[in-house]
Structure formats: structure tokens, C-alpha cells
Amino acid sequence: MLTVAEAVEQLIQSAQPIVEERHRSAVQRVPLLQSLGRVLSSDITAAVDVPPAANSAMDGYAFCVAEAEANNWLLPVSQRIPAGSAPSSLAAGTAARIFTGGEIPRGADTVAMQEVCTEQSGAVRIEGRFSAGDNLRPQGQDIQAGRVILSAGHRLRPQEMGLLASVGIDSVAVYKPLKVGIFSTGNELVDPGTPLQPGQIYNSNRATLTGLIQSLGMEVVDLGSVPDRPEATEHILKKAAAQADIVLSAGGVSVGEEDHIKGAVEKIGRIEFWKLAIKPGKPLAFGSLLGKPFIGLPGNPASVFVTFMILARPFLLACQGSRHSSQLFVKAQAKFSKPGETRELYLRGRLTAEGVEIHPNQSSGVLSSACWGEVFVRQVSGVSIQQGDWVDVLPYQP
Q1: Any alpha helices (H) in 26-137, and if so which ranges?
Q2: Is residue 48 one of the residues assigned to a domain?
Q3: Which three-class secondary structure state does DSSP give residue 40?
Q4: CB contact at 8 A, 164 and 32
Q5: Is the domain of 294 the same as that of 215?
Q6: Which of these, 106, 100, 99, 98, lies nearest to 77 by C-alpha position?
Q7: How many domains would you assign to the chain?
Q8: Is residue 169 part of a domain?
Q9: Per-residue burial over 41-79, b = 16 or more CB atoms within 10 Å of its CB, e = otherwise
Q10: Mean pLDDT by 10 residues, the chain (398 residues)
């Protein structure tokens, strides 16, 4: 069986040809306010400085330090500068009343906060001593014109949207969202809203995968569920490959007599790897069908969540063109003890002020464990965890 690290590496490498193709044909321009989660297809260079001119960091008085010292820190007030107005050059030997964000007038090099200033009869007394540059934000402090501020492959978060707005950009060139086909396998599955009959269960994987894919800014091609029959499985795989860029299934990848995914994929495509040293989620298939990448996830609800987040998510992001598809683990102290196992475990946990704890039931069928927490705790194969040990923690949302 492949290790998790080996499987992720193979998945990321397999994404490269898809990215190269998307560089040529899958780019669109979208309004900035509709760009959340999208991946930039080209570098973005700032056309302006931010801020465009030096401005005051607080309410107070703008002046020239040398002139203030020469006048015993008592200066006539010659103008008033609210934010958004264009100031005149500062008259020699004077100060300007200025407000936060107000542009620093030519001739001034410092701002004194109003709390240490006393204005009377048209002049201001400045208490304390200041150095040139105090309490002002210089031109280009944040961004300099001509600088690349975001590179191709950057996935946009709210803060990047704000950054782009700050340099006057109102639309961006991004890759078109991937179309990800999903379906579930199992005679026992019915959709929510349908009365359960004996032997049936509600299909939770459909909703979980839909939410996970949409959270990545990708389009879901929902193909529903398919009964455990070879011909039906082959038919839905062909249909999914015809409609989507990438195909994900849930269930049917184990070795039982009713598991038909592996055989159907091998009939119309190929399997690159099958079975990983991971828990939950040992039965997982990766390959291609009719030229489209395919990932077959296990069927248990918690296994679907774990394997999507650990394996499918980085692959999908890499295929979308994101440069930041790798998982970033942090360290936390374990507030639990657990013996090691033969596979690498991904335990559903949550952070506390003291460290990280895990849900008491780590069964692959207990989806509520994923809702209870917000992180995975990685337990390396064959290594026990004792309370107080520093462990690897992966947030659900990096």
C-alpha cells in the first residue's frame, strides 16, 4: 500500500498536465467582487502606490520638526486637512490641523497626536518631542507601483480581494472553475426527504461532497446515486466523464462482491493506485476514465470527509492551478493518549486553550465527529501518542 505522502505526491504530479492545458484554454475575466476562491491565471502588477501619498496615522497636527524646534514648539495653524482633501503646501513656520488619513502637505515631515497639543488663538502648542517621520504613513508604505503583488496560481481570499481593490483593480483573469462530477454507489441509499424503508439509509455523502467542492469555488456535476450493479456503474462512469473535468465517487471501491468501481474503471480506463495506508479510508482508488481523472473514495461518511480533505482536496486545487495546494500542519500538545496502529491515522479533533483533544468515537461511520471538531490530528503509523506529546495538527480550513 502507498503511504499518504506518496499518494499525495503522485496526485499532485498527475495534476500538472491539467494545469498546463488550463493555461491555454480555461481563462476568464470576472468582477473582483465575484472572485472569492478563484485562482489567478496571470501575475498582477500594481499601477499605483498604496498609499498614493504620505498621510497621517492619527488626528493631530502636521508640521516640520526643525521649524517647531526653532519656534519653541509653538506654531501658527495655517490650514485644516480632512481626509480626502488636497492640501496646500505648508506655509513656513506653521502647522496644519490634520485628521487620520489626511494627506501630508509639502513642507511637513511629522504629525503630533492631538492629545499632546493645545490650540489657542490660532496657534498650537506641541508638548513633548518628535522626530521626522513620526505618526505618518509614507507614500508606497504598503505597495509600490510596478511591483508584482499577486502571482499566477494564487487563490483569492477576502484579504487578496481587498488588496486588489486598493490598487484600483475591478476585475481579474482567473481559471474557469473545474467541473467535478460526483456520484454515490449503493442499493441502500435514498435521498433525504424520502421515507426510509427497511435496509435503507440516507445518502449523506452527496451533501458532504457537494459542500466540499463548492467551498473550493468549483462546480458540482451531481449525478446522484447508482445501484450496486456492474453495468450501472460503468454507465454512470461514462456519463460522468462526458460531463465533468474530474470524477469523484463515494463507495464501491472495496473488495466485496457488491463493489464494482475498480472493475468498471479498469474496463474503460485505468487504475494508478488502489488502497492506501490511511485510516479511515484504506480503500481509495485513483486513475482515469476516458481521459478524465478519477478518484474513488470509500463509502463510510467520516471516511469520505477525511480522504477528500487529505487527498482529493490538494489534487483538485492543484488541477485548478493553485500554487498553494499542499497541506500545512501545525503543532499542538495532545490532551489524550492513543496506541499506534499499522496505518497513518487522521483523528477528528478540536483545539482548546490547553492543546488538542480528539472525539471519543473515531469510527469511519461517525460523521458527527467531523462536525464536533475543526482539525485533524495526524498519528504516524506505528507511533503511540501520550498525553502531553506534541502532535501534527491540520485545520479543516487552512
Answers
A1: 65-70
A2: no
A3: strand
A4: yes
A5: yes
A6: 98
A7: 3
A8: no
A9: beebebeebbbeebbbebbbbbbbbebbeebebebebbb
A10: 94 86 84 96 97 97 97 97 97 98 98 96 94 96 98 96 98 96 94 94 96 96 94 96 96 73 92 93 92 94 96 95 87 97 97 97 96 97 97 91
